[in-house]
Design a protein that fits this description.
This protein is mainly beta. The chain has two domains: 17-177, Alpha-Beta Plaits (2-Layer Sandwich), CATH 3.30.70; 219-296, Elongation Factor Tu (Ef-tu), domain 3 (Beta Barrel), CATH 2.40.30. The protein has four helices and 16 strands. The protein has helices at residues 27-34, 79-94, 163-169, 206-215, and strands at 17-23, 47-53, 59-69, 72-78, 99-102, 106-111, 122-127, 130-139, 142-147, 159-161, 221-228, 239-241, 247-257, 260-267, 276-278, 284-290. Strand 2 (47-53) and strand 3 form a beta hairpin. The longest helix is centred in the N-terminal third of the chain and has 16 residues, at 79-94. It is globular and about 60 Å long.
Length: 300
């Protein structure tokens, strides 16, 4: 059984995430064969980023997974993207002993004033032996709270902020409904930030991802930038061009920062040294910097 996230529970923007629950004896087996993460090695209580790809190695969803037990895994992702993912997984779940359903949980974030207070890993919240939420440590003082709407919000001592801000600060690219299937894993640095295991067994898209990892050189990489002259919404996937009008990348995510926008972009590395423009707009990008060094490439 597959239950898509409800888009009528609460108003949301494209920056709103939901949490889905996969349960059953084959839950981890399904995820092992469908994502870049190694669920066979993951222990209960561990959280890991898991990327879903199509057979061509292009990303169709990014999730933060929390392994609650041997037969239960929670998956956090964008609401519209998770809706599409639920439909994508239906054929695989139909022949497995597992189900996928929406929890209805709310996702919020904060940055602790005292990072010494930040608990390691993830902590599950229970009521009468039923899991009702979780707290997930993102590092650098950032904490995600997943909770049922009926339960209390994060403590007031924390500095609340949006998940989009956390993703910008931590250089974590997100797939939006407009960019499903648009990017290779390497375009978004998922191979550099611990989202891909290169030692696990086969999974959908692995052949393409591994070939580029071991035998090729990625043409584009993830960069962080500031969009000057625009505080309005820019559609994910909008092309980026150089001064000659040649396409050199695209906008992946953007979040409002006072009068400007903070952005994660996928870009031809050499283009970062030149002027980069948003196609069809007067706004331009500044403070462009690579999110990861190529030497960070994981082989784990």
């Amino acid at each position: 059984m597959t239950q898509s996230p409800s888009e009528t529970q609460t108003p949301y923007s494209s920056h709103t995430d939901c949490v889905m629950r996969m349960t059953g004896a084959d839950a981890r087996t399904v995820l092992q064969g469908q994502t870049t993460a190694d669920f066979e090695r993951a222990r209960p209580g561990e959280h890991l980023f898991a990327i879903f790809c199509n057979p061509k190695g292009r990303v169709i969803a990014d999730t933060l997974a929390l392994v609650a037990s041997e037969d239960t895994v929670f998956l956090r992702g964008r609401i519209p993207v998770m809706t599409q993912l639920a439909n994508h997984l239906k054929p695989y779940l139909a022949f497995s002993k597992s189900t996928l359903e929406d929890t209805g949980w709310i996702v919020s974030c904060d940055r602790l004033k005292d990072q010494a207070e930040q608990a390691e890993g993830a902590q599950l919240s229970r009521h009468a032996d039923v899991i009702i939420g979780a707290q997930v440590n993102r590092g650098h003082g950032f904490v995600e709270h997943w909770r049922s709407p009926e339960h209390e919000a994060p403590a007031a001592s924390a500095a609340l902020l949006s998940l989009a801000e956390v993703d910008l600060h931590t250089a974590r690219a997100r797939i939006e409904i407009e960019t499903i299937g648009a990017y290779l894993v390497q375009d978004l640095d998922y191979d550099l930030n611990g989202s891909v295991s290169f030692s696990k067994g086969c999974y959908t898209g692995q052949e393409i991802i591994a070939r580029l990892h071991y035998r090729g050189t990625p043409k584009r990489r993830l960069h962080r930038a500031v969009v000057r002259g625009s505080s309005e919404h820019l559609p994910p996937g909008i092309p980026l061009v150089d001064e000659q009008g040649k396409t050199v990348g695209s906008l992946v995510n953007a979040v409002a920062l006072s009068s400007d926008l903070g952005a994660l972009i996928e870009l031809i590395p050499a283009a970062a040294a030149e002027k980069v423009l948003i196609k069809g707009q007067s706004a331009h990008l500044s403070a462009i910097e690579a999110c990861h060094s190529a030497s960070d490439q994981s082989t784990g």
